[in-house]
Electron transfer flavoprotein alpha subunit apoprotein
Amino acid sequence: MAKVLVFIDNPGAALKKSSLELLTLARSLGEPAVAVNGELTDAVAASFAEYGAAAVLRPSAQDLNDFLVAPKAAFLAAAAENTGAGVVLLDNSPEGKEVAARLAIRLNAGVITDVVSVDADGTAHKSVLAGSYTTACKAKTPVSVLTIKANNVVPEPAAAPSAPETVTVEVAVGTVPAARITAREQKAASGRPDLTDARVVVAGGRGMDGDFGPVEELADALGAAVGASRAATDAGWISHDAQVGQTGKTVSPQLYISAGISGAIQQKAGMQTSKVIVAVNKDAESPVFEIADFGIIGDVFDVLPQAAAEIRKRKG
Ligand SMILES: Cc1cc2nc3c(=O)[nH]c(=O)nc-3n(C[C@H](O)[C@H](O)[C@H](O)COP(=O)(O)OP(=O)(O)OC[C@H]3O[C@@H](n4cnc5c(N)ncnc54)[C@H](O)[C@@H]3O)c2cc1C
């Protein structure tokens, strides 16, 4: 059976849904093992067993978080060699992609990013050129490194839990050329889900005219993350972190509500793999309606508050 290695970086107190998705995908491709950096809580270890991991690999060095990505790639390369993995799966975050690239160089492996699904034979599917094409691609190398977009796999525990063995992997951090982190500042938490992992995203554009209140109100009614077009972030109405699109974040939620956004190709590039797209725009000719599953021709300042009120009412 093919060996599949999943990289989980600093899982925290409990595994994120995107990590459970990686473990579920790994099981569909072969026998999964997990390389974990950072603290490993009992709850996280229990999830590894629940999701059928055969082994949990830990770095010998405890200070990987003191550096930028290079030592993490070194750890993962050693873990891949230890397990004989033919496929390595990482999340599709900017850091995940950078680790993937460095890992691929170390393993002489093909790397495919922005993957939305993987066939049993290792063929990966992704959309390219600002979402204009969907492609199927397969690495020709013995090892392939894939970064997987969140929200494209339904997390499912294994039929029977495993009893993963714990393996310590030697990582000589001192021999890896790496930049040391000298200071960190915690970002204020919004209380909303992370944009790239969220199951529901409510995004606003220039049509919000400087007032993101209705977007935030609807997002909170739905337990959603808040996104934005570049027009809105460039105008300073909301932080650049919220930008969705070619030069912003790529999201793939179950539901994407687009409010006062025209649907330019650079915006579509970041959200068109969403499962259901609902567009609210007062211009019936707006290109966003070409990709929307449901369209509401109306003013965001009428539609969004009504939707939020109705959702709150139904939630009780
Ligand atoms: C290299 C490059 C990279 C880019 N990267 C990105 C990116 O990552 N993400 C991104 O989003 N853009 C990106 N852009 C910009 C992109 O081309 C568009 O300019 C941008 O997406 C437009 O944002 P918008 O839809 O909010 O604004 P507009 O195109 O101005 O659309 C506003 C929409 O709101 C509607 N509207 C106005 N008032 C209301 C109202 N009261 N109620 C309902 N609807 C209303 C209008 O009918 C219109 O359709 C990039 C551009 C370039 C050149």
User: Anything to note?
Assistant: Residues 205-207, 229-232, 243, 245-248, 260-262, 264, 266-267, 270, 280-283, 286, 299-301 surround flavin-adenine dinucleotide (CB under 6 Å). The chain is about 30% helix and 25% strand.
